[in-house]
Write a structure and sequence with these properties.
single chain, alpha+beta, OB fold (Dihydrolipoamide Acetyltransferase, E2P), BirA Bifunctional Protein, domain 2, eight-stranded mixed sheet, 14 helices, elongated, Asn-tRNA-ligase, asparagine-tRNA ligase activity, EC 6.1.1.22, Asparagine--tRNA ligase, transferase activity
Length: 430
């Protein structure tokens, strides 16, 4: 019977066949221990010479790392293994013998591993991170589908930019100017006026020359937009959504979190509601923590966000930023127009901002003024202004950066490990 490693718990005591690769091996006298993987998981194969026979035993001992083969054996429970099962091997059928696999069990430098990213993905650590990424994506669809959202796909090539063009990749679209999208938000606002509650999930691009552990050139965003939702309504959706995906990872990725050595006690504290502080309060808090140089009206950097997050056990919302440092489309606070109805959600443990969101301007004249204030093309945003001419309503939305969220939940230090093939400032290979 041919099965996968993820299915072995259904076949205890049965003889099965699994297509695998050899991840690692060791031998002790007349027993060989094979670390096997098949893409769905990892399992130890035990080859006992007296039981499997001389030929199978010698094949097991001579196989090289990443050799592919069909392994046959009996599934046994193994309380010593975090996985809980092992395979008592009785047969091996070689498919392809790998020679001189470059990523050996010894330590390698980061640049070497990144040059071999196409192979590094096979490792236990990278496998665990990608499984957690996949679970976050699965839970995202589940959350929004069960809360009445419709998935809409915005374009990747755009003729305008939601936050200006200084950090966009420019290209020619036949005889017109175009950019790789830095956000699908504006299009999602149009979709919200047609479907009420919508979300998108897709790649975005930022031509930002940053080398920090939080930045990628190409990354993926989840961007919901909601008609008839004001700022406070949106914050509730955000904290419910983040709580949901954290809980889903805790429930469905226990083994992956264990492999990464993640302290799950910190994740178990993540449940709505989340603490909230205003930008004003954040400035005061930073001054108390020794950041005396930060002035009102300046944006926060990574050290500031980390210092703020250290005061809380859960993700924290920083609300009501100065309008001057936020994008043109954010709704000013009616009681205090110099700040906008927005929030950044800062993850604990130094992972920084994972969500940015706001209530959107719904008044035509105010939006037109903001477009002019930002020296943007009125013609390019004519369609966006139309949304305020024909049945405008209060509406809000936000964007969650997938890779930063994966880094935080999985506990890895750098976002380059949270996407299959990272695009960095000096890296577009492989």
């Amino acid at each position: 019977m041919k099965i996968t490693i993820s299915e072995v718990h259904q076949h205890i005591g049965e003889e099965v066949t699994i297509g695998v690769w050899l991840n690692n091996k060791r031998s002790s006298g007349k027993i060989a221990f094979l670390e096997l993987r098949d893409g769905t998981g990892f399992i130890q194969g035990v080859v006992v010479k007296n039981e499997a026979g001389e030929e199978v035993f010698q094949t097991a001992k001579s196989m090289s790392q990443e050799t592919s083969f069909y392994v046959t054996g009996t599934v046994r429970e193994d309380a010593r293994s975090p996985f809980g099962y092992e395979l008592q091997v009785t047969g091996i059928e070689i498919i392809h013998e790998a020679v001189d696999y470059p990523i050996t069990p010894k330590a390698h430098g980061t640049e070497f591993l990144m040059d071999h990213r196409h192979l590094w993905l096979r490792s236990r650590r990278q496998h665990a991170v990608m499984k957690i990424r996949n679970e976050i994506i699965r839970a995202t669809y589940e959350f929004f589908n069960t809360h009445g959202f419709t998935k809409i796909d915005p374009p990747i090539l755009t003729g305008s930019a939601p936050e200006g063009t200084t950090e966009l990749f420019h290209t020619k679209y036949f005889d017109e100017e175009a950019y790789l999208s830095q956000s699908g938000q504006l299009y999602m606002e149009a979709a919200a006026m047609a479907f009420g509650k919508v979300f998108s999930f897709g790649p975005t691009f930022r031509a930002e020359k940053s080398k920090t552990r939080r930045h990628l050139i190409e990354f993926w965003m989840i961007e919901p937009e909601m008609a008839f939702y004001e700022h406070e309504d949106s914050l509730k959706v955000q904290e419910q959504y983040v709580s949901y995906i954290v809980r889903s990872v805790l429930e469905n990725c226990k083994l992956d979190l264990h492999r990464l050595g993640r302290d799950t006690s910190k994740l178990e504290q993540v449940s709505a509601p989340f603490p909230r502080i205003t930008y004003d309060d954040a400035i005061e808090l930073l001054h108390e923590k020794g950041f005396e140089d930060i002035k009102w009206g300046e944006d926060f950097g990574a050290p500031h966000e980390t210092a703020i997050a250290e005061s809380f056990d859960k993700p924290v919302f920083i609300t009501h930023y100065p309008a001057a440092i936020k994008p043109f489309y954010m709704q000013p606070d009616a009681k205090r127009p110099e700040v906008v109805l927005c929030a950044d959600l800062i993850a604990p443990e130094g992972y920084g901002e994972i969500i940015g969101g706001s209530e959107r301007i719904n008044d035509y004249d105010l939006l037109l003024k903001r477009i002019k204030d930002f020296n943007l093309s009125e013609e390019a945003y004519k369609w966006y202004l139309d949304l305020r001419k024909y049945g405008s309503v209060p509406h809000s939305g936000f964007g969650l950066g997938l890779e930063r969220t994966v880094a935080w939940i999985s506990g890895v230090e750098h976002v380059r490990e949270t996407i299959p093939f990272p695009r960095l400032l000096n890296r577009i290979y492989p």
